[in-house]
Here is the input.
Amino acid sequence: MAYFLQLVFAGVVQGCIYALIGLGFSIIFKASEVINFAQGELLLVGAYVVSSGMFEWHLPFLLAVVLGIIVTVVIGLLFERLVLRRMIGRPVFSILMITIGLDIVLRTAVSVRWASKPIPAASPFDINSGINSGGIHFGTNDLWTIAVTIIVCAALFYFFRYTKYGLAMRATALDQEAALAVGINIRTIYALAWSIAAGIATISGVFLAIDSSAITPTFGSAALLAFPAIILGGLDSVSGAVVGGLLIGMTQILTAGYESHVTNILGAGFHEITPYLIMILVLLIRPYGLFGTAKVERI
Amino acid sequence: MSTSATDKSAQRVDISPPRIMGSLSHWLIVGICLLAVIVFFSTASEDWFTIVNYTLIAAIAALALNVLSGYTGQVSLGLAFFMAIGAYTAALLGGSPPTSPLDPQGWGLSVFIWLPAAGIVAALVGALIGPTALRLKGFYLGIVTLALVFIGQYLFKNLASITGGSQGRTFPAPVFGDYSFTQQNDLLGITLTSGQQYFLLLLPVLALVSLFVGNVMRSRAGRAFRAVRDHEVGAALLGVNLFEAKLGAFILSSFLAGIAGALFASYTRYVTPTYWDLTLSIQFVAAIIVGGIASIWGSILGAAFVFGLPLVIDHFALLPPAGNGTGGLTSGDLNALIYGALIIVFLLFEPGGVIGLIHRLQALPNKFSLSKGEGGTSPEIINLSPDSVSQLELEDVAPAQRENE
Here is the structure.
């Protein structure tokens, strides 16, 4: 039982990280109907900058995180301003591919700057510290991951519900032309969406790094596991990203914890693909996800 | 405006003469190419054969992706998966029989069986997955094909009796009678190296594939593919069966990817399952965007750029050796930086890729004479026509209104 509960806790932590990553995807998608394939590499850049800030330039952790957020936000803003804005109205294929272009550039730039060997994750927490209760170990870093996810979600909730810009962003997502008509500056909204998403990318990168305790340039592909999370939750739903993230994280950790009993049937590494299998099922049964808006397309 | 443009291109496709006839300039180009091939063949070193052979194989795979993404407009990141299916089919059918119980299986069949079988099995798998995957559009299809790559990785790592597991396995080289491509052989009194023999196999295969794809795209099926890409609703109204067209493109693409995968594995001789990852798929996406969407020469040029160029850079040792563990620029990195940036630049300014650029340059002189109105044949496919924008908005708005009522 303790083993199961420990796994559930680990699943929640993993799910929080996926939720954070997924939030970045869904904010951009909500505002501009673009899936940003480079989100994973923004996260990678953020994690590397924070790590370098701490170990190379000897900054305090929080300052390093701020530096990382600034770097990714600048990259996101530049890309939105210089590239994506010219792509408005072009087909999905082109927009998808252009974010893949950014993905390639960022990943290669990281592996050129930092080489391909793993570097330690920036972490203010002692890896062994934590609370033991009822046979379960609650690591300090894990608790912080959950806390930060809750804080980010609460901040986003407040932003979307009560601030002028949050309202404008929701209006833009609902109907671009109507938003324009009532005087909302859509360019500002797109820029804002990209900055928020890029900032969240760094935060999620830091926690993903702490969770796996080292960073390599292939790290960005872990962010791809946020796809199943956001598809499950519904691409354009912010709360869906959180629920989807938690469900996916939980399934993955539980599979990882119990798959060793059935190695002869499943083989090794089954937990790596459970999120994708769930995603394919969701796409076939309910393509708009649990919380997404159903789009009716009739021919 | 855009409708008149598509009308014109449709007409032009219809009235183009049968392929066999061609024009004088066409045959002249063919002649020059043949001459270039002969000169290359008789003078090049084995290193250059390696570079060119990899490019030829990559070109076949790029064509496979172009059939699905370029001509039919379906986003796919799953090319690596279908290449792997082809490669492992070839390995199972053509590989040497295991000598110890731990060795992966191999039935030792001839190249005439394993090479076509690689394509056919990949096509069958495509036909199996296609109907479910193609229910989805755009981003969603992209993400599902991405999932396919990861599921493939898991399968290939675990099906050790075929794939050799994480350690990988050897792949069969083509054997014709006593001639095995792994060693030097005498053919009609000329000693051929291994690279030269592969070149003699790969060039005709690529030529056949190019001709085949080119002709399919000029046929009724090819026109249906492009109609689906340009405007799904419009295509359906014209009587194109959307599902059939998409599935057809998916299967054809899988078939060609399987062939390319088998050839690649055979040429490399030893491949681990990690090779067939997302990066490989993305490299081919880069190849067709840089080379030219929906263009045969574009696929070949793109493959040369993405897969050939790093080998050329290494061959000439153009870069300082990378320091140990300090990072540094490898040829692959440099190339990835360039093609990553080029994807962005081309999609922004010339969606037709290098081929589109060439067509645009060719069209320049024609701008001065009005009689040659058809000069600019630039395949500006992915430039969206205004009417599909309004269609998207309709789809987005209509259901919401319905709900509000």
